[in-house]
Amino acid sequence: MSKYSVIGQRVHRVDGPEKVTGNAKYTFDLVLPNMLYGKILRSPHPHAKILNIDTSQAEKLIGVKGVVTGKDTLGKKQGIWRRFSELCDEEILCREKVRYIGDPVAAVAAIDEDTAEEALDLIEVEYEPLPAVFDPMEALKEGAPQIHEGVELNINVTRHIEWGDVDEAFKKCDYIREDQFRCSSQAHMCMETHDAVASFDYSGKLTVWTSTQSAYYIQALLAGMLGLREGDVRVIKPPTGGGFGSKFELDSAQFCACVLSMKLCKPVKIVLTREEEFTATKRRTPMYYYLKLGAKKDGTLLAKEARVITEGGAYTGMGATALYLTGFFSSFPYKYPNYRYDGYRVYTNTAPTSAMRGFGAPQSVFTGESQLDMLAEDLGIDQIEIRRKNGMTPNYEVPGQAYIQSCGLHQCLDEIEKHIKKRGKLPPNRGIGIAAYGFMSGGIFNWFDTPYAFSAAIVRINIDGKVDLFTGACEIGQGSDTTLSMICAEELGIRLEDIRIHAGDTGICPPDLGAWGSRETLMNGNAVKMAAADAKRQLMEFAAAKMGVNITYDLDIKDRWIHIVNRPERGVSYFDIVKEAIRGRDGEVIIGRGHYTPHRKGMISPAYSFGLQAAEVEVDPETGRYKLINVTTAHESGTVINPLGIEGQLEGAIMMAGGYGFCEDQPMDEGKILNPSIADYKLIRSLDMPETEILEIDTYEPEGPFGAKEAGEGLTNPTAGAIGNAVYKAVGVRITDLPITPEKIFRALKEKEKQGKKSK
Amino acid sequence: MKKELKLTVNGQPYELYVKPKTLLVQVLRDHLGLTGTKRGCNESSCGACTVILNGMAVKSCSILALQADGGKLMTVEGLASGTELHPLQRAFLDHGAFQCGFCTSGMLMASTALLNENPKPTKEQIKEGIDGNICRCTGYNSIIRAVTAVAKGEYKEGK
Fold first, then answer.
1. Looking at the domain that runs over A31-130+191-242+247-280, which CATH code has it been given?
2. Which residues of B touch A111 (CB under 8 A)?
C-alpha cells in the first residue's frame, strides 16, 4: 500500500469540469463593459528605418477611439534578461527602426475588430528599407548589415562551458567523429493565440487579464515599460490555452493593449490572429551544430566538443537561455570527463527565436544521439551498451556545473532493451531508434534579477476546514493546479476536494517565476508543501494540547484524522480541531507560508529527470514517406504525483517533439515565413499519431516535494533524435537536418543507390 | 443591412438580426454569449469551433450564420443536462483527454457527431473522426481512449 493517500492517485484535473463543459473563461472569452478592440500594425519589411508614421486618417475613421505608436510609450527597451541591460533590446512598439517582418509599429483601438482592422490600412508609415540579413552565418560576416547598434558581427550572446582538458583527451582517443547538423525552427502553435484584456482606471491602476506562463514576469515587465509601480499592475491569468515557452515574455498583445488602455482609460482587448501568431511571436531556435566526439575502442567516451551558432532573429528574448541550455544538455546524459561548448547567438532579420518546450535540449539530443549512434556503429558497439557504459548514475557531479542526485537512466536502458527484444524481428524497412535524455526541474539562474523567492505559496485554513491555496504558479494546461492541490492535500492530511487553489493572480498570490523550465512541480511544489506544513504545525499545537499527549508521541493527520502515529485509532477530527484552533486564536484564520529558492544546487537545476525513448518507423523506400508506428518511453521523474497528468505530458510531448522530427518547419524567403497558417503548417494530427507506451521507472528525488521532479519538458527532448536513428535503422540513410522529411530521405536513398553503383 | 436569423441552439429557439457576413461562430460567441465554442484559426483548419448543425459536425468559423438559418445547433454547452455530465465529458475527465482545454469543446462536438453517426467506431474511424481537430497538448491518444470507452458502453447516460 502506498504511504500516500492523495499522491499517486489517478485524479481528475481540478480544472476539469469547467473545461469539459466549455464553461472555463479564457482571456479570449472575456468581455468587459465599455471594452474596445485593438489591432496591431506590423512592419512588412525585414529591416527598415521608420521615417514617419501618419495616423491622422486612421483616427478620423468612425469607431476608432485611439491610435498609438512608439511615441506614446516611454521609449524604453525591454527584455526578460533584466540583469543585463544590453540584452533588453525590444521596444515592442518600434520608434526608429523595424528589424523583422511583423515588428509592431502602431496599434489601434476601436469599437470592434473590423473597424480596428480597417483603421490599420489608413495608417501611413514611411519606411526606408535597409539591407537585411537572414542567415546567422551571413550575419556573422564582416560587412553584414548591423541589426542592433553597437553589436559587432551581430553577435548577441556567447556562451562557453568547459571542464577537463578537451584537447589533451582527444589525443588519447582511439576514435573521433566530427559531424555537422542543422536544427530547424518550430512554432509553439498554442491553441489560444496570444491575447490580453487591459483595463486602466482613473485611480491609476492597471489590471491585465492575459494568457501567460508567468503573471509575475508580465506584471514586472509592464510596470517597467509603462512607468507604473508593480503594485499598481495586477496581472490575472485566466485558464490559458497552452504556452509551451511562448508566453512568458512580454508580448505585443499585452503591451499594446496596455498602452491603448492607459491612453483611453477604457478596457482594450487584443487577440492575435493565427497568422500573427505564426509570424510575429517567438519560435523555437534554429541551430547550426558542429560536434566532435572521441572515444576509446571499447566505447568509453573521453571527450566531446560542441560549437553552435543559433539564429537569434531580431531580439534576445529567452534565446540567451536556450543558447546556454543547448550547450549544457549537449553533455547529457553522459559522464564526459572532458567537455567544451562554445555557443554564439546571432541576430538576424527574422522573427525572434526563444524558448520552446525543451528549451534548447531537443536540439542537443537530436544532434548528440544521432552522432552517438554513428560512433557506436563505427566501433561495432551496441547502441544500448554504449549508453550504459557512459550513462549518468545517481549522485554524479557534472564537473563544476551540476550535482545529480536521483537518476534512473540505467533502469530506463534495461526496460527499453527488453521492449526492443519484445518487438522481435522487424519487417523490412522498419527500424527502431533510441535516444537518451535528461532535463532540469526548473532553472537556478536569475537573469530576471528577481528579488523574490523563486516560488512561494500561502495556505489559509477556513473555519469549515476548506483550504485556500494561493500560489503564483501558472496553470497553462500542464496540470499545475491539480499537482499543487494534491501536494497541499497530502501534506495537510486532508482530501483533494478540501483544497481550492487560487493561482496566477498577482493581486492575491505571492510572486512565482511561473511555468517554464519544468519548474512548477519541484519549486512551487516545495513552496506549497512548506506552506501546508506550516499550517499543519499550527493545527497540531492545538491538537496536542487538546489530546494531552505525551510529548514523546508524534502526531500526524491522515484523511482528515489527527492522530497519534503509533496509535492511529487515538485521534480527533481535523474539522473539530480547525474550529477550536481558530476560536482559540481570537478568531484569526490559520495561515501557513512557504517559499523555495534553490541554494547550493550547482549552476543549472536542483534536480534532473532522465529517460530513454524508442521510436519505431516504417519507411517506404520508393518515396521516402514514413510512418511513426510506436513510440515507447522509459521515463523517471521521481515520485509520480498524478499518473494521469504524466501520461498526458508524455503523449503530448510525442505529438510536439515527434512533429519537430517528422514534419514541423517554418521555411522562409527573405525573412518572410512562408507557411503562416494551420493549413500550411504541418503538424501531427490524430491519423499520424503513433501508438505510445510508457514504462515508468521508480525513483525518489530528495530535493523534490515527496520525491517528485519534472515531467514536462524533458519528454520533448528525445523524439526527433529517436526518429532520426530509427530511419537509419530502417533504410540506412542518416538525415542530419531537421525535420526528417520524406523528400530528404528520398534524396538520401537515391544518393546511396548512386554511391552503391559506383562502388560496384 | 441586417437580416433576420432564426436558430435553435441547444433546444432554445432564437430570433436575431445579423449582418450578412457574420459567421456562425460570431453569432454563438458574440451574440448569444456561448463562449464554449472557440476560434483557433478562423480558416477551418483547427477544429476548435466545431459545433453540430442539423446532426453534422461543422466548423462554425467557416459558415455564414445565415447559411444556418432555420437550423438546429448543438454546442458544448448543450452536452450536459443540468449538472449531469454527458458520457463523453465524463470519459474525457477519466482519461485525461484534455489539458489546456482550448480544443476540448471542438473535440467533444466532433466526437459526439461521430458517435451519433457511428455508435461503434473502430480506432481508425475515431482517428478519422477527430482528424480535423488539432490538440496541441494531449497527443490525441487519450481522446481516442475516451471515445472508445464511451463507444464500448462504459459510460451510461444520466449516471
1. 3.90.1170.50
2. none
